[in-house]
Amino acid sequence: MRSGLFIILITIFISPITTSAQSLGGLDNISGDAFSISVNPQYPAPYSQATVSLISASLDLTNAVMTVSVGGKETYRGAVRTFPVALGTAGSVTNVRVTISSGGANYNQTISIQPQDVVLIAEPISSAPILYPGKSLVPLDGDVRVVAVANLKDINGKASHSTTYSYAWTVDGVQIANSSGIGKEAIIVASPLQYRARDVSVAVTNSSGVLFGGASLSLTALEPSVRIYQNDPLLGIRFDRALSDAYTIAGAETTLYAAPFSIPTTGGAPLIQWFLNGSVAQNGASITLRPSGSGQGNASLSLVASSGGYTTATANLSLSFGAKSGTNFFGL
After folding, report:
1. How many distinct structural domains can be found in the chain?
2. How far is Cα 269 from Cα 136, in angstroms, rounded to an integer?
3. For the whole model, what pTM was predicted?
4. Beta-carbon contacts of residue 171 (< 8 Å; ≥ 6 apart)
5. Number of helices (H) and strands (E), helices first, in the chain?
6. Is 106 within a domain?
7. How many Å apart are CA 118 and CA 108, to the nearest integer?
8. How far apart are CA 212 and CA 151, in angstroms?
């Protein structure tokens, strides 16, 4: 009898959207009469370090002496240079006093740095298997939902109501007015082009405009992929081991499952198409193959997962079937 393969089962693929971020957070461009002070980052995070630097158009800072006091305690005296300042909890205020001695005169300036807790979380709108413990990646030709999680506190550690926060979003240096405003804690942005990055930042203020913080992150899109797994009738889908290169059909039939990773799902679940020996076999996440005949044989199995006809991922397997099984108790 001639050997061969034919398909007996089709199932439907379900694609979830998963969710994970970076944070920054203070004051910037604090100006005085004789010199200016800048703090980096603009929005420092709690328990981080802010870097303070000085600029002056009227003083010779190269030959000046700088004295720094943090919280009323002198921490540095010497040549003018940038210096770090350790910050405390969210809402706590760190007062920094800088004195510049130049040409027999002293010039003073004091700044207050108040870190706030603002975090950005990127939620790629892309595919991942059901119950997958990891996170899908930023998809090519897709979208990403970026969510700001803010908790602004005053100097006493009391948090304000997050429902009253105002969010100002910026994407690649351009302010996005229609996505900014009170209560607009999320924004959907298009994925960057391949090998490029997209910078997303937000500035958050409370209703009185007294408390403010911010955060930023950089998005990079990566190539999608698709993996093939065995769907065991007793154990279910064997996500612990992806099949690659070659696979032997040891029993009367086998069911394989395709899991596309990081394919855009803005327009719905990815389309999965299976090919057997180069010919279209079926669509769907699962395929069941049953060898026919009594002889041994080989076949090629491939699949293409796509979204909108633009973003695609492929996988290939070399199948063998009809081999005689072992004779010991475990079938080895």
Report:
1. 3
2. 14
3. 0.80
4. 187, 189, 198, 199, 200
5. 0, 26
6. yes
7. 31
8. 10
Tell me: the pLDDT tens digits for 33-76? 799 999 999 999 999 999 999 999 999 999 999 999 999 999 99
Which residue, 106, 110, 108, is CA-closest to 39?
Answer: 110
Looking at the chain, list the stretches that DSSP marks H as alpha helix, in order from N- to C-terminal side.
none
The two structure tokens encoding residue 23: 């944070």
Amino acid identity of residue 124, one-letter, is P
Residue found by looking up tokens 């290939």 in the block: 316
Q: What is the CATH number of the domain that holds 83?
A: 2.60.40.10
Do 57 and 97 reside in the same domain of the chain?
Answer: yes
Where is the domain boundary, 186, 220, 254? 220
Burial of 278 by CB count in 10 Å (0-12 exposed, 13-18 middle, 19+ buried)?
Answer: exposed
SS3 62: helix
User: Within this chain, do residues 155 and 215 fall inside the same structural domain, yes or no?
Assistant: yes
24 falls within a domain: no
pLDDT tens-digit readout, 311-324: 899 999 999 987 66
Domain that holds residue 52: 30-113
Q: At 188, list the tokens.
A: 């959907």
Same domain, yes or no: 84 and 127:
no
Residues 158 and 98 in one domain: no
Give Cβ neighbours of residue 115 (< 8 Å, ≥ 6 apart).
25, 26, 44, 45, 46, 47, 48, 50, 87, 88, 89, 90, 91, 92, 213
Contact 260, 307 (CB under 8 A): no
